[in-house]
Specification:
121 residues, alpha/beta, Rossmann fold, five-stranded parallel beta sheet, 20% strand, globular
Length: 121
């Protein structure tokens, strides 16, 4: 059975590029335009991985990750945070929020697919 990935990004073009890349690799895709909308997906649905942008309106990627970690059945779902920031203090904030891995934008598609495969075996 195909694994399900939730993509969260306020830019539709970014969501669509990720969706196409991951769907072509055989994954089921759910999408949300921000953290607030994405949280509605944690309703008992199967979610094997979350890929989220950092900066979004309504709820950012760090707040979303903290919220996911508080939901009993989803607290161990891996979260990849996509960010343009490579500052070490940002990395520390991400780790303390429960982010599994930070990935710099723009990302390498092959590296992303390899990372996704490792995280949701």
């Amino acid at each position: 059975m195909a694994k399900t990935i939730l993509i969260v990004d306020d830019f539709e073009s970014s969501r669509n590029i990720l969706e196409k890349t991951l769907a072509n690799a055989g994954y089921n895709i759910l999408k949300g335009e921000d953290g607030k909308e994405a949280l509605k997906r944690f309703d008992g649905s199967a979610i094997d991985l979350v890929i989220t942008d950092l900066n979004m309106p309504n709820m950012d990627g760090l707040t979303l990750t903290k919220s996911i970690r508080e939901i009993r059945n989803y607290q161990y779902v891996p979260v990849i945070l996509l960010t343009t920031s490579t500052k070490s203090d940002q990395q520390e904030l991400a780790k303390s929020a429960g982010v599994t891995m930070c990935m710099a934008k723009p990302y390498n598609v092959e590296t992303l697919l390899m990372t996704v495969k490792k995280m949701i075996r």
